[in-house]
Design brief:
Elements lengths: L31 E8 L19 H10 L7 H14 L3 E5 L30 H6 L3 E6 L2 E9 L3 E3 L6 E6 L13 E8 L4 E8 L6 H15 L14 E6 L12 H9 L7 E2 L18 E5 L3 E5 L21 E6 L1
Parallel strand pairs: 1-2, 3-6, 8-9
Antiparallel strand pairs: 1-13, 2-4, 3-4, 5-7, 7-8, 9-11, 10-11, 12-13
Helix pairs in contact: 4-5
Length: 334
C-alpha cells in the first residue's frame, strides 16, 4: 500500500495548524511505552581484523551485502539474534533504518541469494522488519524508502489509516531536493488503544561530512521541526516522539557540523522538545565506538535509555560482527 514519493496520503493527514486532530490526541490516561530505534546496517570496516568462524559472516558475505543488499540486515543468523533481542525487550514501538527490503529479492541474482534472506524467498513472505518484530505488530515504511520502517505493537495502537499488517509507504514524507530520493524524515500518527494519538517521526539523516551532506541534514532537521513539505512540521501532533539515526552527534559536533547545531535550536530543556536519549561528550558512544548519533526526542514523554554492551547490566545480543550501530531502548512516560 503506498503512494508516489511526493504525494501526501489523505489517511495520514496532519493539519497544517500543528495539531493532528488535537482534540482526539488527548489520551484518557498518561502514556507509557517502551521504544527502540535501531539502524540495522553495517559497513565493511566492522569485520576488519575480526576472526570469522567457519560458515560465519565474513569478507565474502560483506561484499555481497554491499553489492546487493545495501548493507542492510539480510543475514538470517543476525535476523534471528535481533528478533530474539526484541522479543526479550518486548517493545511497543520500533523504528528501523537500513533494514533490507525483501521486495528487492527478485532483482538479486540467484548466486547472491545463497545464505541471505532472499534464498527461498517468495512474494508475500514476511519482510525482514516483520520477521524481527513478529506477530501482533503493524509495520509501515517511508514513502520511497522501504529500508526505513516503523513497527507498532497493536496493544499500544495502530497506524492511522493503515488496515493491513504492512503498509509499505505508510509513513508520509517528502524528498529533499539534491539529497537523494525518497523521504529520510517521515511521519505517522498512531491511534492509541487507550484513546488519543501519538505522532511518530522516524529520522535517517544523510551521511557524510562534506558541506553538501551537512546542508542536507540541516534541511532534514527543518523537516522535523519546521515543514515536512506539507505545510506542517513532521513533529506536529499534540504529543510527538522523534526517533532515529541523525547521522550527526549534537552533543559532540555542534561546533563543527551545522546540522548538529540545528538540532540544538529545537531540542533542549529550554526548548519545545527535549532529549530523552543522553547527549554530551561524556556519554558512552553507541555508534562505532566514537559517537552518539542515534537519538530519541519528545515534547511530552520523558524516560531513560540503554544500549547493549555500553550500559551496565546489558550485554551483547549477538556474537556476530555486523552492526556498527547499537540499538537504543527507551522506557518512556508522560
Amino acid at each position: 500500500m503506498g503512494c508516489g514519493a511526493g504525494d501526501r496520503p489523505a489517511w495520514n493527514d496532519v493539519p497544517a495548524d500543528g495539531g493532528a486532530d488535537v482534540a482526539s490526541e488527548v489520551a484518557e490516561a498518561p502514556l507509557a511505552l517502551v521504544a527502540v530505534t535501531f539502524n540495522t546496517g553495517t559497513s565493511g570496516e566492522v569485520i576488519a581484523g575480526r576472526a570469522i568462524p567457519e560458515g560465519g559472516y565474513g569478507p565474502a558475505q560483506a561484499a555481497i551485502s554491499d553489492a546487493w543488499y545495501g548493507n542492510g540486515l539480510a543475514w538470517p543468523p543476525l535476523v534471528d539474534d535481533t528478533a530474539a533481542f526484541l522479543a526479550e525487550v518486548d517493545p511497543d514501538l520500533v523504528v528501523f533504518q537500513e533494514i533490507f527490503w525483501s521486495g528487492a529479492c527478485p532483482e538479486i541474482p540467484d548466486d547472491n541469494r545463497t545464505g541471505f534472506v532472499c534464498e527461498g524467498w517468495s512474494p508475500g513472505d514476511p519482510t525482514v522488519a516483520q520477521t524481527l518484530v513478529g506477530a501482533g505488530f503493524q509495520v509501515a515504511c517511508h514513502v520511497g524508502k522501504p529500508d526505513k520502517c516503523a513497527a507498532v505493537n497493536r496493544r499500544l495502537g495502530v497506524f492511522r489509516g493503515c488496515d493491513a499488517d504492512l503498509c509499505l509507504e505508510g509513513l508520509f514524507g517528502t524528498t529533499v531536493s539534491g539529497c537523494g530520493r525518497g523521504a529520510r524524515v517521515a511521519r505517522v500518527v498512531i491511534e492509541l488503544a487507550a484513546g488519543g494519538a501519538l505522532t511518530l517521526v522516524n529520522v535517517h539523516g544523510s551521511s557524510g561530512f562534506d558541506p553538501p551532506d551537512k546542508a542536507c541534514r540541516v534541511r532534514q532537521v527543518d523537516q522535523v521541526f519546521v515543514d515536512l513539505g506539507d505545510g506542517a512540521p513532521a513533529a506536529s501532533g499534540h504529543r510527538n516522539l522523534v526517533m532515529g539515526d541523525l547521522n550527526t552527534d549534537p552533543g559532540r559536533l555542534a561546533d563543527f557540523d551545522p546540522s548538529a547545531a540545528r538540532w540544538l535550536d529545537f531540542v533542549g530543556e529550554d526548548r519545545g522538545f527535549h532529549w530523552v536519549s543522553p547527549i554530551g561528550s561524556e556519554v558512552p558512544p553507541t555508534y562505532a565506538g566514537v559517537a552518539n548519533i542515534d537519538h530519541v526526542v519528545s515534547d511530552t514523554l520523558r524516560g531513560d535509555c540503554w544500549a547493549p554492551t555500553v550500559t551496565a547490566g546489558h550485554g551483547a545480543f549477538t556474537d556476530i560482527a555486523f552492526f556498527d550501530h547499537l540499538p537504543l531502548v527507551c522506557t518512556l512516560s508522560e
